[in-house]
Amino acid sequence: MALPPSLRTSITPLELELVASEQLVEIVPLVSMERTAFISGAYGPLRPPTKCKVPLWMASNLKLKKKCHMVPPAWLNVDFLQERLLRETTDPGFSEMPFRFAEVAKILLDVAPDDLQNPDRIRMLLKDIREARQAKSREGLSKLDHNELMLPNLCAMEINEIRPFFVRGMNVLTHLTREPVPVDAMDQM
């Protein structure tokens, strides 16, 4: 959902990708490397062809240098995504997805499409899921209630997108539902 500059008070999608790049993913290294310490932790040793878990940023870097193959998460496949799309289009609630699925999928599709089975179909399914979830978000915001708002299973990107609208809407609702101060109470102040 593209936002006008006046509503861009939240984190940008690129910043969300940066945060998501701290997630651990599995790789199959193509080179040996001793255990290496970084600010975020120590990773390795890398010994081909043994799988190991490293942060997404490190896996992306190694992949771009052709020093590993990335193992996609279990949810990043056509069958799982088709089932989620069916749920999104038939059930009124949001289906459960990994919290940072949009960001992780984008990074993997950009950096390692050759490590995914049918990346074009995956990309299309993710787009359809995202559009279905955005439609539910818009519908939920149109029914904004001052007393309670429940949108379980929203993901980081979706929360970030609706935050400006939600904050403004709640401010207006709070202002409209405030008890008016009686005139005699104003005199006593």
Could you explain how this protein is built, in words?
The chain is elongated. Helix 2 packs parallel to helix 4. The protein has seven helices and five strands. The chain is mainly α and 189 residues long. The longest helix has 24 residues. The strands form two sheets. The chain has a three-stranded antiparallel β-sheet with strand order 4-1-5. Strands 2-3 form a two-stranded antiparallel sheet. A hairpin with a 2-residue loop joins strand 2 and strand 3. It has a single domain, classed as Ribosomal Protein L9, domain 1.
List the helices and strands and how they pair.
Elements: H1 13-20, E1 24-29, E2 36-38, E3 41-43, E4 52-55, H2 56-64, E5 68-71, H3 78-90, H4 101-111, H5 119-142, H6 156-177, H7 183-188
Antiparallel strand pairs: 1-4, 1-5, 2-3
Helix pairs in contact: 1-4, 2-4, 3-5, 4-5, 5-6
Arithmetic mean pLDDT:
85
The secondary-structure class comes to: mainly alpha
What is the β-strand count? 5
Largest sheet: 3 strands, antiparallel
Specify the CATH class. Alpha Beta
Number of helical stretches of at least 4 residues: 7
CATH topology: Ribosomal Protein L9, domain 1
How many structural domains?
1
What is the helix/strand order?
HEEEEHEHHHHH
Low-pLDDT stretches are none
Distance between the termini: 47 Å
The coarse silhouette is elongated
What would you say the CATH architecture is? Answer: 3-Layer(aba) Sandwich
